[in-house]
Design a protein that fits this description.
Arc Repressor Mutant, subunit A, two-stranded antiparallel ribbon, 2 strands
């Protein structure tokens, strides 16, 4: 299984938005620069996420995007669905399907694997995936104490 660019970029962009929205609406150009994602591509992804009610746009000079609800209430599964993507392990799990599911020796394996992955995606929030980046941002902005400053 390999995640599509849509899924990978969408998750990275929303993680970035989660980290930076405490400073106000976040511009797509800023996310694109930090995450090395083409702005035009990111705009397309954000249109899908807006239609999926996961983000809201804010107009004006200081405009940009904000999450529509707290990051801890948005699951990775919701994000993937809003982007129009799916996670599949074999043809039997796609819309095209497979005619041999009743005779396939691996069908049960793919079903179990999909069930496990779906459970992880449903139980992992945007806050969970942004946690490390938030911590790094916080630490990079922390002013050292006098003791730390003179210890160096």
């Amino acid at each position: 299984m390999k995640l599509t660019t849509v899924t990978r970029y969408g998750l990275r962009a929303l993680s970035d938005l989660t980290v930076w929205e405490s400073e106000g609406p976040v511009a797509v150009s800023d996310i694109a620069r930090r995450q090395d994602i083409p702005s035009s591509y990111l705009e397309q992804l954000f249109a899908k996420l807006r239609r999926g009610h996961l983000i809201k746009s804010v107009r004006g000079a200081q405009g940009g995007y904000v999450l529509s609800r707290p990051a801890g209430q948005i699951t990775v599964a919701e994000i993937i669905r809003a982007l129009g993507e799916s996670i599949a392990f074999g043809d039997c799990q796609t819309e095209a399907g497979c005619r041999n599911t009743s005779d396939c020796s691996t069908y049960e394996l793919w079903q179990k694997l999909k069930g496990s992955v779906d459970e992880i995606l449903e139980n992992t929030t945007l806050e969970d995936i942004a946690r490390k980046e938030k911590k790094e941002k916080k630490e990079s902005r922390r002013v050292p104490s006098q003791a730390e400053f003179f210890d160096s």
